[in-house]
Design brief:
The chain has 14 helices and 15 strands. By secondary structure, the protein is α/β, with parallel strands linked by helices. The protein folds into two domains: 249 residues, TIM Barrel, CATH 3.20.20; 78 residues, Arc Repressor Mutant, subunit A (Orthogonal Bundle), CATH 1.10.10. The strands form three sheets. It has a nine-stranded mixed sheet, with helices on both faces. Strands 10-11-12 form a three-stranded antiparallel sheet, with no helix packed on it. Strands 13-15-14 form a three-stranded antiparallel sheet. The longest helix is centred in the middle third of the chain and has 17 residues. The two termini are 33 Å apart.
Length: 376
């Protein structure tokens, strides 16, 4: 089983916190779409023996595309790959792009999961982040999506915003619960170099929320979603029972995936490949059959560290048996030493030969992952 990710690098407006590769210039949209279709066709042999069980359109903002353009991409995949009849097909969307008719059209062309970039149910927060939509549009879009037949809806939220109070964050989470969505991804604000927020932070115009408040907001998130029946299956991801993001879970479980489009990454278990982060250079390469990506063959250390980083983030954890069978003996010895250390402190659990973070371990997950990793 494998997945396909397609990066749509267009946004109508640049959000102040976002460091993903994107452009607000849509003038090359038609040419870029032709390039995406060509890359899909030319790389089909890489997954010739695999059944595709997840397709994910991310960005950027895929909802800036027309229905015919989206349909062309899905048809190209259907012609060139073996797509599972029950495949999870996800579309990322911004609330202000959506209407009842458009959401119904998404369903008709084959999308069965919607991931909405809501980020906040506070008008002040949305303005601070330079988001295009309003709170009313966010709420209405979820309701429209349900009427259109979407029964697997995910929303993104951000906490740790400058001056965000515990009460304001709790209100955000409770509104999300009241909307009865199936999946919630909540991320602590990170000030990435090159973003507007990063520049404002360095100039002293913005002040980072104290760590203790961010931790308290994370605790509020966990408590309220647990009370509402959500599974906390990955550090930043929660779902109603069993409704995990199949596509993202394939990343965390080390499944093969193909990344299509500028800046997209691919993984075949032994090699990582990444496309150039430039629309111009990407198109030049695709159109002229010239290189437009780089790749690396993973060392044993790379593979071990990847397994630790991805596995420990999830409820499925890290298997000691897998490490013993797949990696040389020194890696297993290191794993056992760190396991014993954190078992004594209570930051991990050890059940059925598997290490998982305990509730206390979630709050120092970066430290624990760093200790389990091997660095030469």
């Amino acid at each position: 089983m494998a997945g396909i990710y397609i990066h749509i690098p267009f946004c109508r407006k640049r959000c102040h916190y976002c460091d993903f590769f994107k452009s607000t210039d849509l003038s090359q949209k038609a040419r870029l779409l032709a390039g995406l279709n060509k890359e899909l066709e030319s790389r089909s042999s890489e997954l010739a023996s695999e059944e595709i069980n997840t397709i994910y359109l991310g960005g950027g903002t895929p909802s800036v595309l027309l229905i015919d353009e989206l349909n062309d991409l899905l048809e190209t995949i259907s012609r060139n790959y073996k797509v599972c009849p029950e495949a999870e097909i996800t579309m990322e969307a911004n609330p202000d792009d959506l209407s009842q008719a458009l959401l119904s059209a998404f369903r008709q062309v084959g999308f069965n999961r919607l991931s909405m970039g809501i980020q906040s149910f506070s008008e002040a927060d949305l303005k601070l982040m330079n988001r295009r939509h309003s709170v009313l549009q966010a709420v209405q879009s979820v309701k429209w999506a349900k009427k259109a037949g979407f029964s697997n809806i995910s929303i993104d939220l951000i906490y740790g915003l400058p001056n965000q109070t515990l009460e304001e964050w709790e209100r955000n989470v409770r509104i999300a619960v009241e909307l009865d969505v199936q999946h919630i991804s909540a991320y602590n604000l990170t000030y990435h170099e090159g973003t507007f927020f990063y520049d404002q932070l360095k100039k002293g115009i913005l002040k980072e929320l104290p760590d203790e408040l961010s931790v308290q907001q994370f605790e509020i998130l966990i408590r309220i979603l647990k009370e509402a029946g959500f599974e906390h299956y990955e550090i930043s991801n929660f779902c109603q029972p069993g409704l995990y993001s199949g596509h993202n879970s394939s990343y965390w479980k080390s499944k093969k995936y193909l990344g299509i489009g500028p800046s997209a990454h691919s993984f075949d278990l032994l090699t990582r490949r990444w496309n150039v982060s430039s629309i111009t250079k990407y198109l030049q390469g695709v159109e002229n059959n010239e290189p437009y990506s780089e790749s690396e063959i993973l060392t044993e250390q790379d593979r071990y560290n990847d397994y630790i980083i991805t596995g420990l983030r999830t409820i499925w954890g890290v298997s000691g048996q897998f490490i013993q069978s797949e990696f040389s003996y020194p890696y297993f010895i290191h794993f056992k030493q760190i396991r014993d250390k954190y078992l004594q402190s209570g930051h991990i659990s050890w059940l059925k030969e598997t290490v998982c973070l305990s509730p206390e371990g979630l709050f120092i997950s970066d430290q624990i992952m760093g200790d389990f990793m091997v660095v030469e």
